[in-house]
């Protein structure tokens, strides 16, 4: 409890700066200003409160909560709350995050809590993601002279999946997952190159620097994250948001992987014949290297629920 309480206090100043900037930028009404002030006063409550709960806190009606969120550039309160939640959680250490999650999940079994969170996040991701942006990123990857994808820590797994799938489709992609690899990859990046960056939760400085460097060198930058913070957004030609909060001490990679696979699927659909030939060539190489244990499908043709 003490962990979360202290962290919430430390975070309030940062949240206040961000919200007051939006307040000034969009010239909010007095009622909307009260909503912003209610969030500033208790950011932890706002990070999970319903519109009705926040309305009671701000002494306004529920419609004002929705209008305030829309005035700030969000589709509604759920989207604004997610941004507040992400910024709140990003300032917590792993032990602090664990305490917050334990308080929220209560007696729910860890397995059920984890599965329920993943399903909720994927449903939200499917509903909120702009299909045209995903397709445009796929087109950029296909047309780029050079393709680089960056991801560190557990997020390297997401970058690895995109690099693997894109390469199989016929669009060879470089993978950089640590400081030296990232520095080397960006050393000679140029115009007509595309740099894709995965970073979530407590954002890596290496990712923020990479976005700035790639942008400065003329490359097209695509950032996939859970928080549209200025340090990333100002250097992103394309920015996709995916939730990354789990029910434990770590950030989840499932929604990020979902976006990586969606981009890969769009890539494969751009030139199906070329991608089919590329995949067939790789398949031949796998067989030549005797990489696969058997040609039988992993589940021997049985549906998952019959195993």
TrEMBL record:
Pfam family of the protein (one): HTH_6
PANTHER family assigned to the protein according to its UniProt record, in alphabetical order: GLUCOKINASE, RPIR-FAMILY TRANSCRIPTIONAL REGULATOR
Species for this entry: Rhizobium rhizogenes (Agrobacterium rhizogenes)
Alphabetical list of CDD domains matching this protein: SIS_RpiR
HTH rpiR-type domain ranges (all copies): 15-91
GO process annotations (BP): carbohydrate derivative metabolic process
Record has Transcription regulation as a keyword: yes
UniProt-recorded name of the protein: MurR/RpiR family transcriptional regulator
A single MF term (Gene Ontology): carbohydrate derivative binding
Parts of the chain that traverse the membrane: none
UniProt entry keywords in alphabetical sequence: DNA-binding, Transcription, Transcription regulation
All copies of domain SIS, residue ranges: 137-273
InterPro entries: Homeodomain-like_sf (IPR009057), HTH_RpiR (IPR000281), RpiR-like (IPR047640), RpiR-like_SIS (IPR035472), SIS_dom (IPR001347), SIS_dom_sf (IPR046348), WH-like_DNA-bd_sf (IPR036388)
Keyword check for DNA-binding: yes
């Amino acid at each position: 409890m003490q962990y979360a309480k202290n962290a919430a206090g430390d975070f309030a100043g940062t949240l206040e700066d961000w919200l007051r900037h939006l307040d000034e930028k969009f010239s909010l009404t007095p009622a909307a200003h009260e909503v912003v002030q209610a969030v500033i006063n208790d950011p932890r409550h706002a990070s999970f409160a319903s519109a009705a709960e926040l309305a009671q806190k701000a002494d306004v009606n529920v419609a004002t909560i929705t209008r305030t969120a829309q005035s700030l550039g969000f589709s509604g309160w759920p989207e604004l709350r997610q941004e507040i939640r992400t910024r709140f959680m990003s300032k917590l250490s792993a032990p602090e995050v664990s305490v917050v999650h334990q308080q929220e999940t209560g007696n729910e079994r860890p397995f059920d809590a984890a599965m329920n969170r993943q399903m909720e996040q994927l449903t939200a991701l499917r509903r909120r993601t702009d299909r045209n942006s995903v397709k445009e990123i796929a087109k950029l990857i296909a047309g780029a002279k050079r393709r680089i994808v960056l991801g560190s820590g557990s997020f390297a797994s997401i970058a690895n999946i995109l690099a693997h799938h894109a390469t199989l489709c016929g669009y060879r992609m470089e993978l950089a997952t640590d400081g030296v690899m990232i520095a080397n990859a960006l050393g000679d990046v140029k115009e007509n190159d595309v740099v894709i960056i995965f970073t979530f939760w407590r954002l890596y400085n290496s990712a923020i620097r990479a976005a700035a460097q790639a942008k400065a060198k003329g490359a097209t930058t695509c950032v996939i994250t859970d928080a549209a913070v200025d340090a990333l957004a100002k250097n992103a030609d394309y920015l996709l948001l995916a939730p990354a909060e789990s029910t434990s001490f770590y950030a989840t990679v499932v929604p990020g992987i979902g976006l990586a696979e969606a981009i890969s699927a769009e890539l494969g659909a751009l030139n199906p014949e070329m991608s089919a030939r590329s995949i067939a060539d790789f398949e031949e190489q796998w067989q030549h290297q005797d990489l696969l244990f058997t040609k039988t499908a992993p589940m021997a043709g049985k549906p998952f629920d019959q195993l």
